[in-house]
Structure formats: structure tokens, C-alpha cells
Specification:
GO terms for molecular function: cyclic-guanylate-specific phosphodiesterase activity. It holds the Pfam family cNMP_binding. This is Diguanylate phosphodiesterase. InterPro entries: cNMP-bd_CS, cNMP-bd_dom, cNMP-bd_dom_sf, Cyclic-di-GMP_PDE-like, EAL_dom, EAL_sf, RmlC-like_jellyroll. It comes from Prochlorothrix hollandica PCC 9006 = CALU 1027. The chain is α/β, with parallel strands linked by helices and 408 residues long. The protein has two domains: 146 residues, Jelly Rolls (Sandwich); 238 residues, EAL domain (TIM Barrel, Alpha-Beta Barrel). The chain is 44% helix and 23% strand. The protein contains 15 helices and 17 strands. The chain has an eight-stranded mixed beta barrel, surrounded by six helices. It has a four-stranded antiparallel sheet with strand order 1-8-3-6. A hairpin with a 4-residue loop joins strand 9 and strand 10. Helix 6 packs across helix 15. Bound molecules: ligand C2E and calcium ion (2 copies). One calcium ion binds next to loops. The site of one calcium ion has 4 residues, from strand 14.
């Protein structure tokens, strides 16, 4: 909970008859009635229609605040009235962080309320004929909500029906062009939707408990793949697994990792767990979870460093083994001198703190060379290999044999 908005309670006192807002106004606040009473009304051809009279405890004006449109009715105080104001920020932040399906449904419900008020006006005025706009505005919202709900149930059966696939993107030691590990990335081949990118279905899985079976499937599949890589090539690359916020919040992930690692005979130091900086910000459990992982011997990687918050404080506060330099920096390296300076500073700082650096999103040979010159030891990106099927990953590994002295 963010308490910033509660540092000063905003209130407003009104005299009987005083206007609170007028139909068509921008909706900057919703109101809670602390004392007094409020009339909500609309006027049609100079005639006033009372829609409701509200008493202490009631909230009103929330419709325009949430959907960002203008007031659909007017409000005035009937008696001496005290109101508490709810600001747009208080509502916006919560809506943005809400479950996407709930958010969609909220807009659908609000849309229906808007339509109701339009119908009221139509019923009471022969000259009043909008309504089509309300309905056409609402249709995309309904179809988005329905589509998310459908996708969620499809994802549920996707695990069971084998529609999820894991692909493996090589991580290379830049100076020797050899593979040191792979990042496991999930793909969903939906019979009806085609290839759904993880940027679409992972957030959906994460806002439901589906992330737990998806995450467990990833762990099992990745460990099975490592065993096969080792059996076929005799090499022992590490695997990097992406861990979502929700997986940290639910108990049981570390137990599952420990059990499966034992089951497949994979040493824990070869299982790297990648978490986003955002997860550190959002999850109160992250510090304890990271400490547990460290004690169990799973190396930790800070993913996408350089995007979003990028607080140097995190590097100091949490002991990461690896830092992943985000592709947005890497892709600007050649054209942008300040990107070069930032990359160099991040690489030097990481080394000073005892972390290795993996540069992501290397698409050109020159980017890899520049990074290697700056002291960055490891990289991944389309220039070396796209995420590969297990068969292709094994071939790639055979062609890029790690050095016998092993680097991680
Ligand atoms: P990420 O962890 O940052 O993964 C790297 C993404 O960059 C991958 O996208 C990869 O295909 C892409 N990529 C690799 N090399 C290049 C390059 O040279 N250029 C460009 N432009 N892109 C490159 P992908 O596979 O679409 O995954 C997107 C994100 O979805 C991942 O970002 C990760 O956050 C999430 N994700 C994927 N699989 C999983 C999973 O199993 N579990 C969780 N929790 N998240 C996952
Ligand atoms: Ca990652
Ligand atoms: Ca990344």
C-alpha cells in the first residue's frame, strides 16, 4: 500500500444548494459523504430530473474519475454537507496495478452505467438520440475482456495439451565465442491464436495462479533439457530461469527447485535465477527469498538492468552473481556516446562489486566487440543465436564448445 496519498485528507464543506459538479464537467474527483446529503440530477429541456439522493457513507462521482470521461449528471448539496475527496491518482495507480481481467470488466460495467444514463435521457426526451457512441465505445472493451478470459482458460489447457514449448538462447563468453549457458524462454503455440509471445501470456499467467504450474513446467522441462545436453555433448552449461514476481510470493518454489535439481542430478550452482529489478521493488518477500536462494546455492541474476528504476542501491543491498545489461543500452552503443559511457560504468561497477555482466540483445558483431573491449565478458543476442529448440541448442553447443577451464 502506498501511503503518499493519505498524508493530507482532502475535504470540502458545502452550503445547502451549492453545486458540487455539473454535467459535462471533467471528473477530477470522486466524493464520499461524511455529513449531510447530496442530490444527483440531470436536466433535460430545462426540466430537472432527480436521479438519486445520497446520505453519509455514499460515494459518488466515481464513474468519470475511473473512465476519464465527463460527468454524466450534476450533483449539489441539499443540506450543510461535508465531503471527503478521492483524487484521480488514488484511483489511477490502483487500476493500473489491478488484474487486467478485473480492469477490463470494470470498464465494461462502467460502460453499462453510462449507457443506462443515456437510456434515461432517451426515455425522457423525444429529441435526444445519442446512444450509439456509448455502445460502440463499449464494444471493444467487452471484446477485450472476453478475449482475456478466453485466453486464460486456453492457457490452462495449454499446459495439459503440450502447447507450451521451451526454447534456449545461448549465452556466450565473448572473447572465446564459446557457450557458457542458456536462458530458457517460454513459447505458447496456440492452435487458435498461433504463436503467442510471452510478453502477452506471462503477465496473464502471473495475475492468476496459473504462473505456478507454468513455472513448474518450465523448471522440469529445462532440467530435462540440461540432462540431455550433458548426455549428448558431455558439456555442463548453466541454465538461466526467469522468475516472475508472483512465483516469489507463493511459497514452494525453492522447495520445488531443490527437489527437481536433485531428481535430475543438476548441481544448484548451474541453475541461475533471473529476476527483474521491478520484482525487487514490488515484492516485499523478495529480500528473504533471495537470501534463501543464496543459502541454497542458486546464483541470482538481476535482469534488464538499465531499464525502469535502475537504482544503484539494489546492487549494493542485494548480492547478485550476475547483472544483465539491458538490450536498449546495447543497441545504442554505436550511435550514442553516452550509452557507451553508461555501459562502461555499469560493467566496471559490477566487477567492483564481484558480479559478472551479461550483455543482452547483441545483434551486430561490432556491438559484441565494443562490449568485450569495455571488459564485458558475456553476451547473448540474435547475432550469436536466436532462442533455439533443444535439438538446435545441442548442435550450437557442440559447435561452440566451452573452454576446458570453464567460465560461468
Ligand atoms: P527477457 O528475460 O529479457 O528475455 C530476453 C528477451 O529478448 C527474449 O524475448 C529474447 O527472445 C529476446 N532477445 C534475445 N536476443 C535478442 C536480440 O538480439 N534482439 C532483440 N530485439 N531481442 C532479443 P522473449 O522470448 O519474447 O521473452 C520476453 C520476456 O518474457 C522475457 O524477457 C521474460 O521477461 C519473459 N519470459 C519469457 N519466458 C519466461 C518464463 O518462462 N518465465 C517468466 N517468468 N518470464 C518469461
Ligand atoms: Ca531474462
Ligand atoms: Ca532481459
Amino acid at each position: 500500500m502506498d501511503y503518499r496519498y493519505y498524508d493530507r485528507l482532502r475535504q470540502r464543506r458545502l452550503k445547502p444548494g451549492e453545486c458540487i459538479f455539473t454535467e459535462g464537467d471533467r471528473g477530477d474527483y470522486a466524493y464520499i459523504i461524511d455529513q449531510g446529503s447530496v442530490e444527483i440530477f440531470t436536466t433535460l429541456e430545462d426540466q430537472l430530473y432527480v436521479l438519486s439522493v445520497l446520505e453519509p457513507g455514499a460515494i459518488f462521482g466515481e464513474l468519470a474519475l475511473v473512465d476519464g470521461r465527463t460527468r454524466s449528471a450534476s450533483a449539489r448539496a441539499l443540506t450543510d454537507t461535508l465531503l471527503t475527496l478521492v483524487t484521480r491518482e488514488q484511483v489511477d495507480e490502483r487500476i493500473q496495478s489491478a488484474d487486467p481481467i478485473l480492469r477490463m470488466l470494470l470498464f465494461v460495467v462502467l460502460g453499462y452505467l453510462r449507457m443506462e444514463s443515456t437510456h434515461f435521457r432517451r426515455r425522457n426526451s423525444p429529441n435526444f438520440s445519442i446512444g450509439l457512441r456509448e455502445r460502440t465505445d463499449l464494444l471493444p472493451r467487452i471484446s477485450q475482456a472476453v478475449d482475456l478470459i478466453r485466453m486464460e482458460s486456453e492457457l490452462q489447457s495449454a499446459i495439459r495439451d503440450g502447447e507450451l514449448k521451451l526454447v534456449y538462447q545461448p549465452i556466450l563468453h565473448l572473447a572465446s565465442n564459446t557457450v557458457v549457458g542458456f536462458e530458457a524462454l517460454t513459447r505458447w503455440y496456440s492452435p487458435s491464436r498461433g504463436l503467442v509471445p510471452p510478453s502477452i501470456f506471462m503477465p496473464l499467467a502471473e495475475c492468476t495462479s496459473l504462473i505456478i504450474p507454468v513455472g513448474e513446467w518450465v523448471v522440469k522441462t529445462a532440467f530435462e533439457a540440461m540432462r540431455q545436453m550433458e548426455q549428448v555433448t558431455g558439456n555442463t552449461p548453466f541454465i538461466s530461469l526467469n522468475i516472475a514476481n508472483r512465483q516469489i510470493e507463493e511459497p514452494g518454489l525453492t522447495d520445488y527447485l531443490v527437489n527437481q535439481a536433485q531428481c535430475y542430478g543438476i548441481p544448484r550452482q548451474r541453475i541461475k535465477l533471473e529476476i527483474l529489478e521491478r520484482t525487487l521493488m514490488d515484492s516485499q518477500l523478495a529480500p528473504r527469498w533471495m537470501e534463501e536462494c543464496r543459502q541454497l546455492g542458486f546464483p541470482l541474476t538481476l535482469d534488464d538492468f538499465g531499464t525502469g528504476y535502475s537504482s544503484l542501491g539494489y546492487l549494493n543491498q542485494y548480492q547478485f552473481d550476475t547483472l544483465k545489461l539491458d538490450k536498449s543500452f546495447v543497441q545504442e552503443l554505436e550511435d550514442n556516446a553516452s550509452s557507451r559511457s553508461i555501459c562502461k560504468a555499469i560493467i566496471d561497477l559490477s566487477h567492483a562489486l564481484g558480479m559478472t555482466v551479461v550483455a543482452e540483445g547483441i545483434e551486430q558483431a561490432t556491438q559484441g566487440e565494443l562490449l568485450a573491449d569495455m571488459g564485458c565478458s558475456y553476451g547473448q543476442g540474435y547475432f550469436y543465436a536466436k532462442p533455439l529448440s533443444l535439438g538446435q541448442a545441442i548442435e550450437f553447443l557442440q559447435e561452440h564448445q566451452p573452454s576446458p577451464h570453464g567460465v560461468s
